[in-house]
Design a protein that fits this description.
Blueprint: H1 11-20, E1 24-29, H2 32-48, E2 52-57, H3 63-67, E3 73-77, E4 85-86, H4 93-103, H5 110-119, H6 130-138, E5 142-144, H7 155-161, H8 173-183, H9 191-207, H10 215-218, E6 226-228, H11 235-248, H12 250-258, H13 264-286, E7 289-293, E8 296-300, H14 303-313, H15 315-320, H16 326-340, E9 346-351, E10 356-361, H17 367-377, E11 381-384, E12 388-392, H18 404-417
Parallel strand pairs: 1-2, 1-3, 3-4, 8-9
Antiparallel strand pairs: 5-6, 7-8, 9-10, 10-12, 11-12
Helix pairs in contact: 1-4, 2-4, 2-5, 2-11, 2-12, 4-5, 5-6, 5-11, 7-8, 7-13, 11-12, 11-13, 12-13, 13-14, 13-16, 17-18
């Protein structure tokens, strides 16, 4: 199915539809921006007394979004699909969701909105998020300071797991701990200590083997963060958590995006899933075979092997029982390669053992449409948005017997289409 590129509906128009609906089903793409936007809308619907359901899926380009629900409506979040949608194409979906909630006379959480903006690759205060930043600053809920955008104060573990950066310590908490020890930072970090930390990360990103010229600008998203009063330390840290949860544990992600003060158990589950996700993605990339082609870089990884390595190296993670899958991790690997390793505009992460690939582009190029078109040629599944996509030649849960050729052919067709 073709992804449309029409502008987002006016907040007033969508708000009028939502307030009169007997039931609303929100179907969000599996990324941090759409998840944050769905949380903002769900909270607004709860405040006005409208029953709702939230579902997160790799691609809400399905018939159920068109058909809606009995005696209700469906809203696609993060994709332009169906009569009611917040596409997130012209600006972050979370910025539009914040505006819709305000039209409903609800006080939306600006921290969640700003986290969605960061997850979308934007900067708080830009791309339609000025109102959210103004609200957060006026209420004293954010303070911009030096440092790195992390979700907690556990610096070593967070730097190792963060997918906002790619450093020599990524995927290795002990290496991160040793690098921090060499700085001699105080237990309670002041602004000067935060500046030292930011300098370490910025230099390490640039010095990482294979770092691209794009890495120097990509790391800026993780620097000079907005400190928050939420259960997560910074806006950017929450953005990273939401992006991982959208694929790793969407139910927990909805709980985090919906509740301004999620319970301790929910927060712990969210952080456990995020850390496992980030460590697995980085360790998969550590052992990747990377090839450059005209227009794209292809990274071949073994996610199952990276999971085993993460659990063997970190007993605490192994005890959590959160196991990443190729479906969850490949999009993060593709984004990391795009931002920090690829000299080409598109990065593709491939896991041959599961028959899956994920792709990320620096610009909106209709990547999801490309993946769907290629998938149709190989009797596979394809999905995505304007700047990211995925493809699977094996159904979830089945063995990849004899499909290597299919995936290789699909990859070749994708490269040719790009």
């Amino acid at each position: 199915m073709t992804e449309a590129t029409s502008a987002a509906p006016a907040p007033d128009a969508l708000a009028d539809v939502l307030v009169d609906a007997p039931f609303v089903r929100l179907v969000a793409t599996d990324d941090g921006d759409a998840l944050a936007a769905a949380g903002l809308l769900a909270r607004a619907l709860r405040a006005v007394g409208t029953p709702f359901q939230v579902r997160v899926a790799p691609d809400p380009f399905s018939d159920d979004v068109d058909d809606g629900v009995d005696d209700g409506i469906a809203v696609a979040v993060g994709a332009d699909r169906g009569p009611h949608a917040i596409p997130g194409s012209s600006r972050p979906a979370s910025a539009d969701a914040f505006a819709v909630a305000r039209v409903l006379d609800v006080d939306p959480d600006p921290i969640v909105a700003l986290a969605g903006v960061v997850a979308a690759g934007s900067i708080p205060g830009t791309d339609g998020s000025a109102d959210a930043l103004d609200a957060a600053e006026a209420s004293g809920r954010v303070r911009r300071r030096p440092g790195v955008a992390l979700p907690t104060t556990d610096l070593a573990d967070d730097i190792a797991a963060s997918t906002l950066v790619r450093t020599p310590h990524s995927g290795d908490p002990e290496a991160a701990r040793a690098a921090l020890a060499a700085l001699g930072l105080p237990t309670d970090l002041d602004d000067d200590a935060h500046r030292q930390l930011a300098s370490l990360v910025a230099v390490d990103v640039a010095d990482t083997e294979g770092a691209s010229t794009r890495a120097a600008s990509a790391v800026e998203r993780a620097l000079r963060p907005y400190e928050t009063d939420s259960p997560f330390e910074t806006v950017g840290g929450l953005a990273d958590v939401l992006d991982a949860l959208a694929r790793e544990a969407p139910g927990t992600g909805v709980a985090v995006a919906l509740d301004r003060n999620p319970s301790g158990d929910v927060r712990t589950a969210a952080l456990d899933a995020w850390r496992t996700h980030g460590l697995t993605a980085h360790r998969a990339l550590d052992d990747a075979s990377i090839g450059r082609y005209d227009g794209c870089v292809v990274s071949r990884v073994d996610v199952a092997g990276a999971v085993d390595a993460a659990e063997a190296a970190d007993a605490e993670i192994a005890s959590v029982g959160s196991v990443s899958s190729a479906a969850a991790v490949l999009p993060s690997v593709a984004r990391l390669v795009r931002d920090f390793r690829s000299p080409e505009p598109v990065a593709v992460a491939v896991d041959e053992s599961t028959g899956r690939l994920a792709a990320a582009a620096t610009e909106p190029i209709g990547l999801g449409d490309v993946c769907r078109t290629v998938a149709a040629e190989f009797d596979a599944d394809g999905w995505g948005t304007a700047d990211r996509g995925g493809l699977a030649v094996v159904a979830d849960g089945s063995e990849n017997d004899g499909t290597d050729g299919d995936l290789a052919g699909a990859l070749a067709a994708l490269r040719e289409a790009l």
